[in-house]
User: Fold this.
Amino acid sequence: MTGLTDEDIAMARAAIGRSERRREVLDTQSLRRFSVAIGGEGDVGGRRPVLAHWAWFLPTPLDGEIGADGHPLRGGFLPAIAALPRRMFAATAIRFEAPLLLDAEAEAVTRIADVRHKAGRTGELVFVDIERSIAQRGAVCVTERQTLVYRAAGDGAPLALPTPDGAAHVAAEGGAVWTPSTVQLFRFSAVTFNGHRIHYDRPYATAIEGYPALIVHGPFVAAKLAEMAAGSGVLAHFAFRAQAPCFVDQPIRLGPAGDGAFHAIRCDGAIATVAQAGYR
Assistant:
């Protein structure tokens, strides 16, 4: 039992409708760093990363506003949900309405759209849906709805052990094999200002959160799939859902799955991430 009470749930749901507004110049250098961190060439004057908007409007907590896990302390913009200490990125759905203009000011409006409580196989879960729109010159360019999941502390997922079937998936044609390194995880954490320690602090990830190795960021995998999807045309929308964790130094097959779908498949054959692309 987590000790999550009806009052806890009511307090979390009281955050629905909470919003914040930020203005920022979408500078070229931040986008160049993001491009390089996800494996691009950094030539953002030409083809930009599909998920370019992730390069800006990053969380910037002060030193005293950071929790033990590296995330911002509970109880700020997001609901606290103190009884469920683990928080992770679960899914997102993005619509691309117009290109973002570089080195020009933009406004992001972020709103908590929903808070949902569920009982899963591994215990109680709380899902928080966050809507964000980014506009320039009075017109919305990008909209996104992210889902975060809060869960109880406990042992993390076991290491993915290579299997013959899984190896066949990784070696299959029609995709690419990516083996994320510790340095790549660190760079992605840095470029997205993500302090969650499961991505770069192995002693914390293994001893505190119970994982067997560093965890690959779900958004990092999504960015790789989005770049692959963009090879087939101009994206109108892109969505992904994380289903299983990927681990550092293990091969991941990124590839199409038909009808605009893309999968990230681990070395044990498990589908780690499911993505869906729609084109103009």
